[in-house]
Amino acid sequence: MTVSLPPLREVIARHGLSASKALGQNFLFDEKLLDRIAAIPGPLAGEVVYEVGPGPGGLTRALLRAGAHVVAVERDHRCLPALADLAEAFPGQLRVIEGDALKIDPFAEIGAPFHIVSNLPYNVGTALAVGWLGGNAWPPTWKSLTLMFQREVADRIVSSPGTGAFGRLAILAQWRSNASIAMPVHRSAFTPPPKVMSAVVHITPKEAANGVKMSVLENLTGAAFGQRRKMLRQSLKGVPGALEALHRTGIAEDRRPETISIAEWCALAREIG
Protein backbone atom coordinates (compact mmCIF):
# COMPACT_ATOMS: atom_id res chain seq x y z
CA MET A 1 0.00 0.00 0.00
CA THR A 2 1.50 3.33 -1.08
CA VAL A 3 0.49 6.27 1.09
CA SER A 4 2.02 9.72 0.79
CA LEU A 5 3.08 10.92 4.23
CA PRO A 6 4.90 14.08 5.30
CA PRO A 7 8.47 13.70 6.63
CA LEU A 8 8.61 12.83 10.32
CA ARG A 9 10.44 16.04 11.17
CA GLU A 10 7.56 17.97 9.63
CA VAL A 11 5.06 15.97 11.72
CA ILE A 12 7.06 16.76 14.86
CA ALA A 13 7.15 20.47 14.03
CA ARG A 14 3.46 20.69 13.11
CA HIS A 15 2.32 19.11 16.36
CA GLY A 16 4.91 20.90 18.50
CA LEU A 17 6.39 17.66 19.81
CA SER A 18 9.65 17.14 21.65
CA ALA A 19 11.03 13.98 23.22
CA SER A 20 10.23 13.72 26.94
CA LYS A 21 13.12 12.59 29.12
CA ALA A 22 10.66 11.70 31.89
CA LEU A 23 8.93 9.24 29.54
CA GLY A 24 12.21 7.81 28.22
CA GLN A 25 11.51 9.05 24.68
CA ASN A 26 14.02 9.20 21.83
CA PHE A 27 12.58 9.63 18.34
CA LEU A 28 13.81 7.90 15.18
CA PHE A 29 13.43 9.83 11.91
CA ASP A 30 15.36 7.66 9.40
CA GLU A 31 12.57 5.97 7.44
CA LYS A 32 14.89 3.48 5.77
CA LEU A 33 16.12 2.38 9.19
CA LEU A 34 12.52 2.15 10.44
CA ASP A 35 11.56 0.02 7.44
CA ARG A 36 14.48 -2.31 8.21
CA ILE A 37 13.27 -2.71 11.80
CA ALA A 38 9.72 -3.41 10.61
CA ALA A 39 11.08 -6.14 8.31
CA ILE A 40 12.84 -8.08 11.10
CA PRO A 41 9.80 -10.18 12.17
CA GLY A 42 9.21 -11.24 8.54
CA PRO A 43 6.21 -10.51 6.30
CA LEU A 44 3.62 -8.53 8.26
CA ALA A 45 0.84 -8.18 5.70
CA GLY A 46 -2.38 -9.06 7.53
CA GLU A 47 -0.53 -9.69 10.82
CA VAL A 48 -1.39 -7.94 14.09
CA VAL A 49 1.43 -5.97 15.71
CA TYR A 50 1.45 -4.57 19.23
CA GLU A 51 3.60 -1.46 19.63
CA VAL A 52 4.49 0.34 22.86
CA GLY A 53 5.43 4.01 22.87
CA PRO A 54 4.93 4.92 19.20
CA GLY A 55 5.49 8.63 19.92
CA PRO A 56 4.94 10.58 16.70
CA GLY A 57 4.57 7.29 14.79
CA GLY A 58 7.86 6.74 12.97
CA LEU A 59 8.01 2.98 13.47
CA THR A 60 4.22 2.83 13.32
CA ARG A 61 4.14 4.12 9.76
CA ALA A 62 6.77 1.56 8.74
CA LEU A 63 4.65 -1.23 10.23
CA LEU A 64 1.53 0.09 8.51
CA ARG A 65 3.37 0.33 5.18
CA ALA A 66 4.31 -3.34 5.64
CA GLY A 67 0.59 -4.17 5.81
CA ALA A 68 0.31 -4.80 9.54
CA HIS A 69 -2.71 -4.05 11.68
CA VAL A 70 -1.19 -2.13 14.58
CA VAL A 71 -2.45 -1.78 18.14
CA ALA A 72 -0.34 0.99 19.67
CA VAL A 73 -0.20 2.01 23.33
CA GLU A 74 0.85 5.61 23.94
CA ARG A 75 1.07 7.28 27.33
CA ASP A 76 1.94 10.76 26.02
CA HIS A 77 -1.28 12.52 25.04
CA ARG A 78 0.75 15.06 23.03
CA CYS A 79 1.43 12.38 20.41
CA LEU A 80 -2.19 11.33 19.89
CA PRO A 81 -3.00 13.88 17.13
CA ALA A 82 -0.03 12.70 15.05
CA LEU A 83 -1.14 9.09 15.49
CA ALA A 84 -4.70 10.07 14.57
CA ASP A 85 -3.33 11.40 11.28
CA LEU A 86 -1.72 8.00 10.64
CA ALA A 87 -4.95 6.18 11.44
CA GLU A 88 -6.70 8.36 8.86
CA ALA A 89 -4.00 7.67 6.26
CA PHE A 90 -4.26 3.88 6.82
CA PRO A 91 -8.00 3.27 7.34
CA GLY A 92 -8.78 0.28 9.57
CA GLN A 93 -5.12 -0.57 10.23
CA LEU A 94 -4.32 1.39 13.39
CA ARG A 95 -5.90 1.44 16.83
CA VAL A 96 -4.34 3.65 19.49
CA ILE A 97 -4.81 3.05 23.21
CA GLU A 98 -3.90 5.91 25.51
CA GLY A 99 -2.46 4.41 28.67
CA ASP A 100 0.43 2.86 30.57
CA ALA A 101 1.72 -0.28 28.83
CA LEU A 102 2.82 -1.72 32.18
CA LYS A 103 -0.86 -1.95 33.12
CA ILE A 104 -2.20 -3.31 29.81
CA ASP A 105 -2.59 -6.96 28.76
CA PRO A 106 -2.07 -7.00 24.99
CA PHE A 107 -3.81 -10.35 24.54
CA ALA A 108 -6.91 -8.99 26.28
CA GLU A 109 -6.88 -6.10 23.81
CA ILE A 110 -6.15 -8.18 20.70
CA GLY A 111 -7.59 -11.62 21.42
CA ALA A 112 -5.35 -13.43 18.94
CA PRO A 113 -1.63 -14.18 18.49
CA PHE A 114 0.42 -11.12 17.54
CA HIS A 115 3.92 -9.77 17.04
CA ILE A 116 5.38 -7.15 19.36
CA VAL A 117 7.54 -4.54 17.64
CA SER A 118 8.65 -1.50 19.58
CA ASN A 119 11.27 1.15 20.11
CA LEU A 120 10.78 0.74 23.85
CA PRO A 121 10.94 3.73 26.17
CA TYR A 122 14.25 3.32 27.99
CA ASN A 123 12.74 3.69 31.45
CA VAL A 124 10.31 0.75 31.17
CA GLY A 125 11.82 -1.42 28.44
CA THR A 126 13.34 -4.12 30.65
CA ALA A 127 10.24 -4.38 32.86
CA LEU A 128 8.00 -4.83 29.82
CA ALA A 129 10.28 -7.45 28.27
CA VAL A 130 10.46 -9.47 31.50
CA GLY A 131 6.66 -9.38 31.68
CA TRP A 132 6.28 -10.67 28.12
CA LEU A 133 8.85 -13.41 28.72
CA GLY A 134 7.30 -14.45 32.02
CA GLY A 135 4.35 -16.55 33.08
CA ASN A 136 4.04 -20.32 33.32
CA ALA A 137 1.78 -20.61 30.26
CA TRP A 138 3.73 -21.46 27.08
CA PRO A 139 3.77 -20.96 24.13
CA PRO A 140 3.05 -17.27 24.65
CA THR A 141 0.35 -15.22 22.95
CA TRP A 142 3.03 -13.35 20.99
CA LYS A 143 4.67 -14.78 17.87
CA SER A 144 7.85 -12.74 18.12
CA LEU A 145 9.40 -9.82 19.97
CA THR A 146 11.36 -7.20 18.01
CA LEU A 147 12.52 -4.68 20.60
CA MET A 148 14.89 -1.73 20.70
CA PHE A 149 17.00 -1.57 23.86
CA GLN A 150 20.07 0.20 25.11
CA ARG A 151 22.99 -1.85 23.78
CA GLU A 152 24.01 -2.88 27.30
CA VAL A 153 20.57 -4.40 27.93
CA ALA A 154 20.55 -6.07 24.51
CA ASP A 155 23.94 -7.66 25.25
CA ARG A 156 22.62 -8.97 28.57
CA ILE A 157 19.63 -10.59 26.86
CA VAL A 158 21.76 -12.57 24.38
CA SER A 159 24.78 -13.21 26.65
CA SER A 160 26.30 -16.61 27.39
CA PRO A 161 27.22 -18.25 30.72
CA GLY A 162 30.66 -17.30 32.00
CA THR A 163 30.49 -13.75 30.67
CA GLY A 164 30.07 -10.62 32.76
CA ALA A 165 26.77 -9.76 31.05
CA PHE A 166 25.18 -13.15 31.77
CA GLY A 167 22.45 -13.06 34.38
CA ARG A 168 18.78 -13.38 35.13
CA LEU A 169 17.65 -11.52 32.00
CA ALA A 170 19.58 -13.87 29.71
CA ILE A 171 18.12 -16.95 31.41
CA LEU A 172 14.54 -15.68 31.28
CA ALA A 173 14.98 -14.77 27.61
CA GLN A 174 16.77 -17.89 26.44
CA TRP A 175 15.48 -20.94 28.34
CA ARG A 176 12.38 -21.19 26.14
CA SER A 177 13.10 -18.60 23.42
CA ASN A 178 15.70 -17.90 20.77
CA ALA A 179 17.20 -14.44 21.23
CA SER A 180 19.58 -12.60 18.91
CA ILE A 181 20.71 -9.07 18.14
CA ALA A 182 19.11 -8.26 14.80
CA MET A 183 20.87 -4.93 14.25
CA PRO A 184 22.86 -2.30 16.13
CA VAL A 185 21.58 1.28 16.07
CA HIS A 186 23.95 4.19 16.51
CA ARG A 187 23.03 6.85 19.04
CA SER A 188 23.15 9.48 16.27
CA ALA A 189 20.05 7.93 14.67
CA PHE A 190 17.89 9.29 17.49
CA THR A 191 16.57 12.74 18.31
CA PRO A 192 17.71 13.69 20.86
CA PRO A 193 20.74 11.38 20.74
CA PRO A 194 20.90 9.24 23.91
CA LYS A 195 24.19 8.89 25.76
CA VAL A 196 24.43 5.19 24.85
CA MET A 197 24.25 3.00 21.77
CA SER A 198 21.19 0.85 21.07
CA ALA A 199 20.35 -2.45 19.41
CA VAL A 200 17.28 -4.28 18.17
CA VAL A 201 16.77 -7.71 19.74
CA HIS A 202 14.64 -10.34 18.01
CA ILE A 203 13.12 -13.10 20.16
CA THR A 204 11.04 -16.08 19.03
CA PRO A 205 9.51 -18.75 21.30
CA LYS A 206 10.74 -22.34 21.30
CA GLU A 207 9.65 -25.44 23.19
CA ALA A 208 10.03 -25.05 26.94
CA ALA A 209 12.07 -27.51 29.00
CA ASN A 210 9.85 -30.22 30.48
CA GLY A 211 8.86 -29.90 34.12
CA VAL A 212 10.22 -26.39 34.64
CA LYS A 213 7.99 -23.68 36.08
CA MET A 214 8.78 -20.10 35.21
CA SER A 215 7.83 -18.97 38.71
CA VAL A 216 10.44 -21.30 40.25
CA LEU A 217 13.10 -20.25 37.74
CA GLU A 218 12.39 -16.57 38.44
CA ASN A 219 12.68 -17.15 42.18
CA LEU A 220 15.95 -19.06 41.83
CA THR A 221 17.63 -16.62 39.50
CA GLY A 222 16.35 -13.62 41.42
CA ALA A 223 17.99 -14.92 44.59
CA ALA A 224 21.21 -15.99 42.91
CA PHE A 225 21.87 -12.92 40.80
CA GLY A 226 20.73 -10.60 43.56
CA GLN A 227 24.01 -11.67 45.18
CA ARG A 228 25.95 -12.61 42.06
CA ARG A 229 29.37 -12.30 43.67
CA LYS A 230 28.52 -14.92 46.27
CA MET A 231 28.71 -18.69 45.87
CA LEU A 232 25.48 -20.59 45.37
CA ARG A 233 25.57 -22.07 48.87
CA GLN A 234 25.19 -18.53 50.22
CA SER A 235 22.91 -16.85 47.66
CA LEU A 236 20.42 -19.76 47.43
CA LYS A 237 20.19 -20.69 51.10
CA GLY A 238 16.98 -18.70 51.47
CA VAL A 239 15.22 -20.54 48.60
CA PRO A 240 13.35 -23.59 49.97
CA GLY A 241 14.79 -26.81 48.54
CA ALA A 242 17.53 -25.10 46.53
CA LEU A 243 20.57 -26.49 48.37
CA GLU A 244 19.12 -30.01 48.27
CA ALA A 245 18.49 -29.53 44.53
CA LEU A 246 22.14 -28.56 44.05
CA HIS A 247 23.20 -31.87 45.64
CA ARG A 248 20.78 -33.92 43.54
CA THR A 249 21.84 -32.30 40.26
CA GLY A 250 25.55 -32.47 41.06
CA ILE A 251 26.06 -28.71 40.78
CA ALA A 252 28.84 -27.61 43.12
CA GLU A 253 27.82 -25.22 45.89
CA ASP A 254 30.96 -23.14 45.48
CA ARG A 255 30.11 -22.06 41.92
CA ARG A 256 28.91 -18.55 41.20
CA PRO A 257 25.62 -17.93 39.39
CA GLU A 258 27.09 -16.59 36.13
CA THR A 259 28.95 -19.90 35.60
CA ILE A 260 25.75 -21.99 35.66
CA SER A 261 24.40 -22.89 32.22
CA ILE A 262 20.77 -22.36 31.29
CA ALA A 263 20.30 -26.14 31.16
CA GLU A 264 21.63 -26.39 34.72
CA TRP A 265 19.31 -23.62 35.93
CA CYS A 266 16.41 -25.52 34.38
CA ALA A 267 17.55 -28.73 36.08
CA LEU A 268 17.62 -26.95 39.44
CA ALA A 269 14.15 -25.49 38.89
CA ARG A 270 12.82 -28.91 37.87
CA GLU A 271 14.20 -30.49 41.05
CA ILE A 272 12.58 -27.84 43.24
CA GLY A 273 9.31 -28.26 41.38
Question: What does this protein look like?
Answer:
The chain has helices at 8-14, 31-39, 58-65, 80-89, 106-110, 125-133, 151-158, 168-174, 214-225, 232-235, 242-249, 262-272, and strands spanning 27-28, 48-52, 69-74, 94-98, 114-119, 142-150, 177-185, 190-191, 198-205. With 273 residues, the chain is of the alpha/beta class. It folds into two domains: 8-205, 3-Layer(aba) Sandwich (Rossmann fold); 214-272, Orthogonal Bundle (Helicase, Ruva Protein, domain 3), CATH 1.10.8. It has a seven-stranded mixed β-sheet with strand order 4-3-2-5-6-9-7, with helices on both faces. The chain has a two-stranded antiparallel sheet with strand order 1-8. Helix 3 (58-65) links the parallel strand 2 (48-52) and strand 3. The longest helix is centred in the C-terminal third of the chain and has 12 residues, at 214-225.
Domains counted in the coordinates: how many? Answer: 2
Question: What is the overall pLDDT average?
Answer: 93
Q: Uncertain spans, ≥5 residues at pLDDT below 50?
A: none
- Name of the CATH first level of the largest domain: Alpha Beta
The tally of strands reads 9
- The CATH topology of the largest domain corresponds to Rossmann fold
What's the CATH superfamily of the largest domain, by name?
Answer: Vaccinia Virus protein VP39
Please state the CA-atom Rg, rounded to the nearest Å. 20 Å
CATH architecture of the largest domain: 3-Layer(aba) Sandwich
Cα-to-Cα separation, first versus last residue? 51 Å
